[in-house]
Amino acid sequence: MGYKIGVIADDFTGASDAASFLVKRGYPTALFTGPKESLLLECDCLVVALKIRSVEPQQALAQVAAVLDFFEKAGVEKIYYKYCSTFDSTPRGNIGVVSDYLLEYADQQYTLLCPSLPINGRTVRDGVLYVNGVALSESPMKSHPLNPMWDSSIASLMVSQSKYPCHTLAIQELEDGVYQDRIALWARKSPHFYLIPDYVTDEDGEVIGKHFSDLVVNTGGSGLLEHLLPKRSCVPSKRGNRGIEPAILLCGSCSVMTGKQIRAFVRNGGNVISVNSANLINGEVTSGTVFAEIQKNQPMPTLVFSDAVFDDMEERAQRMTFYQEASAMESFLAELGMLAKQNAYQRIVIAGGETSGAVAISLGYQAFYLGRIVAPGVPELIPVDDPSITLVMKSGNFGGEDFFEEALR
């Protein structure tokens, strides 16, 4: 069959983010929840959602290897490794390990590290990653409970994750075409290496794509992805069931933006249920009791969220029960998603990458078409085998303050 590009995404929201930019570029795209050889669809691009952002490197490599085998059999021409636009700064992070593996797999000497996504405030200059103009390690992401952002230099973050060196490139060097000599010099010194180009605007992305779209393997956030293929006319979006009732919103994200979105939802008259993870562990709260309350509120949609979103996450992450509580919350929200499906809910909105992965796995859908774009990087997902339901999965920091209202429109 043959496909223009195959994307390996490190979580479910990252996968839907990537797919939305490919569709925006004009390429029919299908999203899969893992290698699904029996479900290949008529489209130009494949995106595979994994759940590897916070797993051990060897676990990540095993899943990536399975996707590469899938891509090879499907006839994928190019490979893109999509990771979070705020990178992964844990010393045991796997972005460097996976990127090394992809370089060696493709026998390619170098590739890009481009986590930028300018439309959502993620930019890179001189190898430093910024969030809305603030260095990553000084941004609210420094307190991320699973992946605290302790450094803003991409090259520094890669030291503990990768075997190979990183080099920065000024956008002016690309525009002037004077970068080849530098690449030739680096190529004489190392069998593999990485380039970190300046990427502050979408125009920078076009320049980067112009010079490096011929590489078989590239890596980065979704921002660069749309610039690696020639622009086409827009792709008509698929249309699932357009009703919004009944609907449910499930929020495990504890980002600052998510907190603002929850408050906006409440201000606008939305119905919410706040859940304490400790009460899940001791059995005081269950998915069954909460879903019964949600049913009573119909047809008004209900937003269920972790009360940790309004806590000091640095302090909370120090608790001995932190990971147990996080796992309990994920399982609880996944169970609510399954109850919603079983009760014919037409729209399920999920906030948070880990939460989205847990809910997607529980629902059991294997492939999706893309519907309308709710916010940059956040499309509607319509299961291929169940168009009566529409899913919306967003990374914690994505969307404006009225995101939940927009997702229900």
Lateral arrangement of strands in the main beta sheet = 9-10-5-11-4-1-3-2-16-17-18-15-12-14-13
User: How many strands in all?
Assistant: 18
Annotated CATH topology of the largest domain: Rossmann fold
Oligomer kind: single chain
Low-confidence runs: none
> Count of DSSP helices?
15
Radius of gyration: 21 Å
- CATH homologous superfamily grouping of the largest domain: Putative sugar-binding, N-terminal domain
How does the overall form come out from the CA principal axes? Answer: globular
Indicate the percent of residues in helices.
25-40%
Query: How far is the N terminus from the C terminus?
Result: 37 Å
The CATH architecture category of the largest domain equals 3-Layer(aba) Sandwich
| Assigned CATH class of the largest domain | Alpha Beta
Structural summary, described in words:
There is one protein chain. This protein has 409 residues and is of the alpha/beta class. It has two domains: 3-228, Rossmann fold (3-Layer(aba) Sandwich); 247-408, Four-carbon acid sugar kinase, nucleotide binding domain (Molybdenum Cofactor Biosythetic Enzyme, Chain A, 3-Layer(aba) Sandwich), CATH 3.40.980. Helix content is 37%, strand content 22%. The chain contains 15 helices and 18 strands. A 15-stranded mixed beta sheet has the order 9-10-5-11-4-1-3-2-16-17-18-15-12-14-13, sandwiched between helices. Strands 6-7-8 form a three-stranded antiparallel beta sheet, with no helix packed on it. A hairpin with a 6-residue loop joins strand 17 and strand 18. It is globular, with a radius of gyration of 21 Å. The model has no long low-confidence stretch (mean pLDDT 88).
